[in-house]
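Hi F.,

I've been meaning to write this up properly since the lab meeting, where we talked about keeping a consistent format for the predictions we share between groups. The idea is simple: the sequence comes first, exactly as it goes in, then the structure tokens exactly as they come out, then a line or two of notes. No screenshots and no reformatting. I'm using this chain as the first example so we have something concrete to point to.
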Amino acid sequence: MAACPRSVRELPRSDKSVIGYPRARTQASPEPDRAAAGSALLPARRARAESASGLSEPALEHLSPQCCLPQIRERLHADPTHCLALWLACSVDEPWQEVLGSRMQELRSFSGICDVCLADVPAALEREGDDVYCAKYCPTHGTRRWLVSRNGDRYLRFDRQYHTLFPADEPPSAGGEPYFLITNRCNQGCNYCAFEPNRYDYFGDYDVEQFDRDMRSSRSSKIDLFGGEPLMHPRFFEFVERIAAAGKTTVILSNGMGFADEGVVLRLMEASRGRCFVRITFEGFEDENYGHLRVRRLIDLKLAALANLKKHAVPTALAHTVNLDEQRDEDRLRRTLRSIIEFAMKERFVSGVSFTSVTALGASRNNRPDEVLSVDRLMDRLLAACPVAIERNHVYLTQQIALYVGRILDVPMCEYKQAAMLFRRGGRWVGINDLFDCQRLERRFDRRIEQPRVGRFRQLLGLVADLAASARLSRLLWLAGLAGRMLPLLWSGLDYRKIPKEILLLNVSTTCDPNNFDASVARRCERPTYSVADTGVRTRLGAHLLIDFLRERTAADQPRNGKEAAVRQKGFPKSQI
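Output, unedited:
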């Protein structure tokens, strides 16, 4: 593995405060130090300068952040390559837009991962027009860019708000909803699964007694059972009974095949004492959606499972992974997304639908960067297929409300998650714009985020005041009733079973992979994970878990590394400097 150049994580604490967007102002907030900002960005710029110009680190040492525009102009005609390296390594402002005619703009720096060699490298969020990229500066493989968004200012506004509410120099919140990987066995065999069950031994079967101790040590009111396929653990129902005995809710992440047997659903309800929530993978309602799977008549098993869950009123969410075939056929993808959303709108036992794209992890680790959709780009496709018209800005606004709530509750919040929220009102589904003046709410949020940081209670009062002032007068009574029905959800620690039936969440999320990894986001991962291996129980944040698995897999498969890296590098669109 390539040596890791100096990364953001290695910067002194005094420099970390300028990595990313500025914190919310305090009463005595000083003016920003532009020279310090340039020094903080220097490692990333040096790495990019080396990959762009071929100049070594010693050749750049004489350059200083105070390099000015006349110096660049003077060198431009004599040595264009060195001139480019000069700006990349040292510039604090953006003079290259004027001199070189380029439109690329660096916005914030962080520590990333090279998608070829998997080394930790300096990275940055960059913008070119309305396109936003995650750029990684690898000393071995050059600059690697991955498209994050095509929404320009709207996405950057959301990104800035996230990093202002959750600044890089503030310790992340403790807790989160724990995921227990209780078995590595699976009976579905998706060809893109990040965990590669039945193929590679990342983890083994969890011991029930060990699980009981680990589960009780978590302060979360929800415990997620995952795999593989958790129902394939021979003692699955003992896990559920232990969770119920601890007074917690069982969340099962399953392919749903086991629930085609009504007896399994009945036993689940009994073992959990009615405190369970099921999230099942669902490919769609057409046979073509199951062409990549080898299980015969799988669509019949999935529909039977949904019928049993509905019959016994088990709170359920559907999870759909957009595979490569769907990405290449936009019409098919639109039909699939729309049919799943319409089903969820019709069925009361379904409280939400989550969508994700294949990643460059596990069985799909050789996917090219242009084959991995970001959360923002997948949300664009979801909105195009949604039966209810939702504006793109309203999704960012909904997620901003969620970030404020997370800040108030002091729970970990991930930036790589966006949600469109639908409301059932008057016999039809409507978006957030039917309830609020969204432009007014955005303006109030923008003003509030620039205000000095206050305590959580005052933040709550401020959020309530903003929502009340932006609510449409004809909807105030209905919103007051909805707020009352939301209180049990908040008091229970966001227990999914208590989501009001008037709300349908359409979530888009992802898992950290070498393309999107951002250390400033990963440190606030919402998913602490527990798994067992030969060395015992391993506890890691979900953001690092699959990256670590990928590195283990790559190291074990060393003879093929060169070929796999060549495939990834060859398939990447040519970088633009």
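Notes:
The chain has a mean pLDDT of 80.
The first helix runs from residue 13 to 16.

If this format works for you, I'll send the rest the same way.

G.
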